[in-house]
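are you around this afternoon, could really use another pair of eyes. what follows is a protein written twice so to speak, once as letters and once as structure tokens for the fold. i want to understand how the tokens follow from the sequence so walk me through it. anything you notice is useful, everything is just below.
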Amino acid sequence: MSNVIFLTETVNQDLVSINWTLIAQICNLFIQVLLIKKFLFKPVREILAKRQAKADADIREAAEAKEAAAAIKSEYEQNMLEAKEKANELLAAAQKNAAEKSDQMIKDASAQAAAIKQKAESDIAQERRKAVNELKDEIGDMAMEIAGKVIEREISEKDHQKLIDEFISNV
């Protein structure tokens, strides 16, 4: 029986005995986890945080650039509308100016035509007066001739009528 007791003591000793290798491996694992956490995970997290911050900043900058581009586009479109309005105003002013000049030219031409017509009418009236004066002179001369002829001879009523008809045909 002593053999059985010895065997049970040995088995109990093996069960109760601490396996120092296992404890050392567990301690080694915890030390490795702490070292990895301190020297690997922490820097990796910092790098990831920096990259995340940079990505966020880039996204913010892109959004700001997009807003700035939209503002510039809006300003450009506004400037284009203003330029079109100004061009239309200039065109309308030029058309109005051209119409006014055209009206003024027509008025000037009408005034010149009226002046030319007035001058022509006055020239015609003057020529008419001149012609009438010349006719009066000729009539006076003819009357003198007729009077001279009448005096030279005594005329009858029939001769007198004949002289008047000649005078009228000469005139």
Q: What stands out?
A: The first helix runs from residue 2 to 16. The mean pLDDT is 83.
